[in-house]
Design brief:
The chain is mainly α. The chain has ten helices and five strands. The strands form two sheets. The chain has a three-stranded antiparallel β-sheet with strand order 2-1-5.
């Protein structure tokens, strides 16, 4: 965040703290304000059908789980199926450190992660929705930039294609003006398509191999609507939410205590019988 972003975030957090009648801003307000600044305000008044809720849950779980198993992805810190802004749901990642350079391997993994929602819908529902439109647009743009801007194509080599001018004048976007032949344009399209198809297949392999976790995370989202980093990692490693683990442990302790009490009662009863005899 820039200084202005941080100021906006803390202003939002201060408003939330005041509404909740708190004497200080806590991490709860800062996290909620971060969601609002980054994604938009929650739209809880919007009526969502159970079918749409399920589609969104599997879509977001697809993003989160594929990212979890990709080497070059930031940790998942928040998943939500509550509508915010124009989004039906979102998966938020927080970098562990600032990155100066963007590696090709990272960009390829980004594309795989972006396709997680579409792949999850295809696997679970054997159908696809319009919810992945922005993901597909971003994935395609990343792949095209890799080829035309960063020279990351083994076939076309380290060459920049296009004018590189971002200004728009008289209705013309000079960023899309071509300075290369039709044959090269076709080769670029083929390279972009190959990257997207390979990323799709990689994602499908990940989600197919970990489909049980896809179901677990999706069911938790349908139940809770929001999952934080601790809950997500608990679901991925143990299959249950942290509070459910505590509940299970409590039940085990109670069960063990009942067994011990029965044993003590039997011992006392046997002792009394021996004394009477």
């Amino acid at each position: 965040f820039t200084g202005a972003d941080l100021e906006n975030l803390l202003n939002e957090a201060a408003l939330l703290a005041a509404k909740r009648k708190k004497l200080a801003i806590t991490m709860d307000e800062i996290e909620e304000a971060t969601m609002k600044v980054v994604v938009g305000s929650e739209k809880k008044s919007r009526k969502i059908s159970e079918k749409d809720k399920k589609i969104t849950a599997y879509h977001e779980a697809g993003h989160a789980i594929s990212s979890y198993y990709l080497e070059n992805q930031d940790p998942v810190t928040h998943i939500s199926i509550v509508p915010r802004g124009m989004a039906a749901g979102f998966t938020l990642y927080t970098p562990e450190q600032d990155k100066t350079h963007l590696l090709k391997s990272r960009m390829l993994d980004d594309i795989v992660s972006l396709l997680g929602g579409r792949v999850a819908e295809q696997i679970i529902f054997n159908d696809i929705s319009t919810g992945a439109s922005n993901d597909i647009q971003r994935a395609t743009e990343t792949a095209r930039n890799m080829i035309t801007k960063y020279g990351m194509s083994e076939k076309l080599g380290p060459i920049a294609f296009g004018s590189g001018n971002d200004e728009v004048f008289l209705g013309k976007d000079y960023n899309h003006m071509r300075n290369y032949s039709e044959n090269v344009a076709a080769a670029i399209d083929e390279e972009v398509e190959a990257i997207i198809r390979d990323a799709y297949n990689r994602n499908k392999k990940i989600l197919t191999e970990h489909i049980d976790q896809l179901h677990i995370v999706s069911e938790a989202l349908i139940k809770l609507e929001k999952i934080d980093k601790e809950q997500f990692e608990s679901l991925m490693t143990t299959g249950v939410l942290p509070q459910e683990k505590v509940s299970e442990k409590t039940e085990e302790i109670i069960s063990e205590r009942e067994v011990i009490e029965e044993i003590v009662e039997d011992i006392n009863e046997n002792t009394e019988n021996s004394e009477n005899a």
